[in-house]
Structures are given as structure tokens and as C-alpha cells.
Design brief:
By secondary structure, the protein is an alpha/beta fold. The protein has helices spanning 10-38, 52-67, 90-109, 125-134, 150-158, 205-209, 217-229, 255-263, 283-291, 308-313, 320-333, 352-365, 392-414, 481-486; strands at 43-48, 71-72, 80-85, 114-119, 140-142, 164-166, 187-191, 193-194, 213-214, 234-238, 270-274, 298-300, 338-345, 369-374, 421-429, 436-441, 446-450, 459-467, 471-476. Strand 16 and strand 17 form a beta hairpin. Bound molecules: S-adenosyl-L-homocysteine (SAH), iron/sulfur cluster and FE3-S4 cluster. Iron/sulfur cluster binds at residues 196, 198-200, 203, 205-206, 240-241, 277.
Length: 487
Amino acid sequence: MSDYQYTRNEASDRAENEVQYGYMEKVKQLVDDLSVRLCRRPTAAVITFGCQMNARDSEKLSGVLEQCGFTLTEDEGADFVIYNTCTVRDNANQRVYGRLGYLHNLKKKNPAKKIALCGCMMQEATVIEKLRKSYSFVNLIFGTHNLYKFPELLYACLSSDEMIIDIWDSTDRIVESLPVERQFSFKSGINIMFGCNNFCSYCIVPYVRGRERSRTPEEILCEIRSLVADGVVEVMLLGQNVNSYGRNLEHAVTFAQLLQEVEKIEGLERIRFMTSHPKDLSDELIEVMKHSKKICRHIHLPVQSGSNRILQRMNRRYTREQYLELVRKIRTAIPDISITTDIIVGFPGETVEDVDDTIALVREAQYDNAFTFIYSQRTGTPAASMPDQLPEEFVKEQFNRVLEAVQETARRQTGKLVGHTEPVLVEELNHQEAGHVTGKLSNNTTVHFRGDASLIGHIVPVRLMECKGFYYLGEKVEEDIRELWKS
Ligand code: SAH
Ligand code: SF4
Ligand code: F3S
């Protein structure tokens, strides 16, 4: 276990933070000067690829840019554009290269435009080589480990025309106090840990995000309290494997214990978390979820495959029998829970029979939803050098078979709540239908119903009238919501 230990110096993390706030002041000056030249405030766009952890990082990038005087926009015609990239599958990388071509054209029309790249894809040496060679118009490149230095890097980028590249192999720092511009006022992600130690044989995340590091419960609770004071009612605790949270802290804490502390925060209404590795999901967690009033009735429990042979080659460290037993335990303890999963189709050497096993598992687990991915060969991972990579046509066929099974069970599961009245957190106006809003059930299913913007950020009781495959149409009811929570 010794290579899993990390040392952390919190005083030095705080000092580093001050340095970065100093750089923000300097950037502000540059942005003010630029405003005078442009006769308007310069604009900045943060474009996110990838998972919720990247989305959270993007909120920090936006927070810094806004604090420095940029006007935030979603338009890639902005004066400063940053792509926060993902590399979990090759199509994520291809999308970035494609869009860079488009950005280059925009830059030709606006030579003052600055283009920056950060995130997981930048941790790959081959990517950096390619960018250096063929994308020399990019101004700033940094990785996942030094995001906390964004103000300093931004300062360097705005004061120079050179391509600035700063990529680190790892870090022992956790500097989490940069300003944050949240995407939603009423809900927020919170990093509880970084990195991953699992090394599933197909996965690049441990290589680009480094070893697992947990934040202390005090830091996490303090951040949530201040979010709640700022109007947040729902938090999503984020980590690649939240079930191993706290193991490598100086004073070890379990994820279930952390949840119990989070539950005590007054004013917080809903708690979600992502992602749970099945091998580490404890009975203690099931027990805490069962008795909780705030933890949402949803668990994302990636299975990846239903074949023991493939699971072993994937280095997932559980069998299909163990996984199904876990599902049974969770459903018995929390009957109204929704369970979702991730599945990979086309792992090297996967046969029709292996896929049959996956389909049988999908039917048995009765997933409420599943994200099905075609296996993507990631350079540097053990699976990439396995000899039996599969032909595309065969994989597509197998993928479609799995997708069909997933859709069939998901449709059946979603319909279960028709006729019930359930609390819904209203998230936004419905873009398709005027006079309607869209929200989420505790079990994460989407609900559309008649309502206006004044409901956004509130939890209201909604009768679920009709199930339309993967979402409900409902009607807001006037009964006192507290009655619902008593039941
Ligand atoms: N830490 C999370 C997953 C992070 S990546 C977990 O273990 O559950 C999100 C999903 O991407 C994974 O669950 C997996 O299904 C998929 N994925 C990861 N690497 C992949 C690859 N090389 N090809 C296809 N899908 C992959
Ligand atoms: Fe990747 Fe496995 Fe870690 Fe998830 S647990 S991030 S799939 S290595
Ligand atoms: Fe992608 Fe990085 Fe997340 S590779 S899935 S953005 S951790």
C-alpha cells in the first residue's frame, strides 16, 4: 500500500492559494487595459468535455475568468476560449481536434483571440507532441494537476505570444479555494477525492488524474455549508470511486461516515454521489442510505460487463454473482431506489457468449438506465496491448444488442411511479414547451410539468401522470410537501 500514501501540507496549500489570488489581481489589470483598447469588456468561454469532475473544474476556470474581469459567454467567438478536455474514449479527443480547426478560423479574424487547452487529454505526451507540431496557434496548454495555478498561467498567456505548455506528472496538493462560478445556483458538485487507484485495464483515468487523494471531512463540510448559505439545496459528492473515500487520510474515515455528517447540514435537502465501484460498496453505506432522509434514491453502479471472464480481464475485481448479490441487497434495503450503470461493449476478446452474459445481467439487475459505450483502445493501458482487439462491425452489432436490452428494462422501470406524487427539484424552464418546467425526482428521473421560472431551485410535489419512456409528464399538486417526506 505504500505507493498509495501521499503527504500533504495544508499550510503550504493555503500559501499557494494566496499566490494565485495575487496573480488574479495582475490579470485584472491586463483585462482592464484590454477593455480600453477594445472599447468593451473582453469575453471568455469555457467549453467542457467529459465527466462531472471536469464540469466542476470548469466552474473554477469560469470563476477565475469572471473574477479577473472577463464577461463569460458560451460563444466560441470569445476573446479567450478554453477547452477543458476528456480522453476517456478516442471520440472525445477527435471532437477536440475537430473544433480546434474551427477555432483557428475564428482566430484568423480576431488575432487578439487566445486559445487555451486543459484537462485530461493534455496529460498524454502524444497529444502534446501533436499540438506542438500541428496546432501552433494554441496559446496555453496545461493539465489536470496544476489547474489550481490557472491565474498564474492565465497571466503568462495574456502577457506573451509564445505557446505556453505546463504539464505535471502528479501532485500532492489539494488547492480548492479558487473562486467558483456555478452553473446552477441551487445545486453543485463537490470534489471529495481526486484520482483513482483501480487501474481497470481499459481505463486511462488513473494515468491522467493520478493517484487517489481524499479531502478531509472538515474541508468538505465547510465547503458544503458555505454553498448552502449561498442557496444550494442539492450537492453531488464527486470522486472516481467514492466508496474508497477517506482510506488514505491521516485519520481514516469511511464514505458512509462522511455522508452522515453531510446529512446533518441544515438547509441541505438532497445528497447525491458519483461514482461507486461495486467492489468497495459497503453494507454500512447501504444502511446509511436506507435511513437517510436526504440521500437520493439513486445509485450509479458501473458493471462494465456481465461476463466473469471479461470482468477478470478488465481487472474489475468482482464477479457477476457478487455484483448481482450487491444489487439484490440494495434493492431489498431500499426498494424505491433506482440503479443505473455503465457498460463497455467490444473489450478485447469479447465473444457473442460474453455479450449474452451482459444482456442476461442487464435483465436480472433491472437497471433504470445504462450508459453503453463501445470499447475504445487507450494507448498506455494494459487492454490496448491485448492481442485480440475486435473488428468494428462485430462490435457495433453486439453494441446494438446490448442497447436494446437496456432500453427495454429502462422503459419498464421508469413507468413504475405513474400515479405517485413525488418531490421534484425544479431545474430549468422546459426548452421545448413554453409554460413548462423540467425537474428531477430523487431517483434522478426527469419530469416535465406546467410551471414558471419562479419554481426553479425549489422542491415541489408533482403527481406523475404519464411515463414517456425515460421521463414523466406530471402536474404540480398543492399538498404540503412536508407530508411527502413523513411517509
Ligand atoms: N470511475 C468511474 C468511471 C469513470 S469513466 C467508474 O469506475 O465507474 C466513465 C465510464 O467510461 C466507465 O464506467 C466506463 O464504462 C467508460 N470507459 C472508461 N474507459 C473506457 C474505454 N477505454 N472505452 C470505452 N469506455 C470506457
Ligand atoms: Fe477508470 Fe476503473 Fe478508476 Fe473508474 S475505477 S476511473 S473505470 S480505473
Ligand atoms: Fe474524461 Fe477525465 Fe472525466 S478522462 S471522464 S474528463 S476524469
